[in-house]
Design goal:
- The protein has two domains: 51 residues, Winged helix-like DNA-binding domain superfamily/Winged helix DNA-binding domain (Arc Repressor Mutant, subunit A); 172 residues, Beta-Lactamase.
- 45% of the residues lie in helices and 20% in strands.
- The protein starts with a helix and ends in an 11-residue tail after the last helix.
């Protein structure tokens, strides 16, 4: 738990040596512990640094479910589920801020549904959650990402150029909703809106995920619903500004 708590505070991750020094644990013992945590998904290793893994995010979601604020958040998500009939998710940046990761999910009651799992990571440039996070990140962070990202094509709908992605992010900032239809998964689609907190800081995103055909057919309705949910959730977390896409 000390390892997980320390990594939660280290956005860029931590090397074995730095962890050993911070926690005052022998490297040999710590390495065995990290291997066990990595095997179970609580920790992941990238370019020599250890970061939190998907299982840690799932655990965090369970722990915070007893918080009073979470009760209010769950009420908004449940309302969105009932009004949309589609899967509803919450998410935010992965610890290295290279992906979007889902932290909460309410599944659609439809037999045919699109419902990514809690803990799943999604590329920023071709998913609803990712594009919403990227669009409302600080300019310097978004620019740094755009300079280094490799725009791998998952489907024929994946955006293939940085210019196209920059235009898409500008549209998202105006409308307050990111839309991804079959950009990563054939047949899958999502809409996402940002969640802000006090001080106008980006906290995360709320997402509607649905089969592509149903999302296309109800595009205007679902876009309004996810934007309203984003605004309601932002108010819960202390945001007092004008929400994107509203008058």
């Amino acid at each position: 738990m000390q390892v997980i708590e320390h990594l939660a505070s280290e956005r860029e991750g931590s090397s074995l040596g730095a962890l050993s020094s911070a926690l005052q644990l022998p490297k040999t013992s710590l390495l065995q512990l990290l291997r066990a945590l990595e095997h179970s998904g609580y920790v992941q290793r990238h370019e020599g640094a250890y970061r939190l893994g998907p299982a840690s995010f799932r655990m965090g979601a369970l722990i915070t479910s007893s918080d009073g604020t979470i009760g209010a958040v769950r009420a908004v998500l449940q309302d969105l589920l009932e009004r949309s009939g589609e899967s509803v998710l919450l998410g935010g940046f992965s610890t290295d801020r290279r992906f979007g990761v889902y932290t909460e999910r309410l599944e659609s009651p439809h037999a045919m549904r699109f419902a990514p799992a809690v803990g799943e990571q999604r590329p920023l440039y071709c998913t609803g959650i990712g594009k919403a996070l990227l669009a409302f990140s600080p300019d310097a962070q978004a620019s740094a990402y755009l300079r280094r990202v490799e725009l791998r094509r998952f489907t024929r709908h994946t955006l293939g150029s940085r210019t196209a992605l920059e235009d898409e992010l500008a549209r998202i900032r105006r409308r307050g909703v990111a839309i991804s239809i079959e950009e990563m998964v054939e047949g899958g689609a999502a809409m996402a809106s940002p969640i802000f907190e006090a001080g106008d800081a980006l906290k995360g995103c709320v997402v509607i995920a649905a089969p592509a055909a149903r999302l296309r057919a109800r595009s205007g309705e679902l876009e309004a619903l996810v934007r309203q949910a984003g605004e309601r959730l932002s108010k819960i977390f202390g945001f007092v500004g004008r929400y994107p896409g509203t008058r």
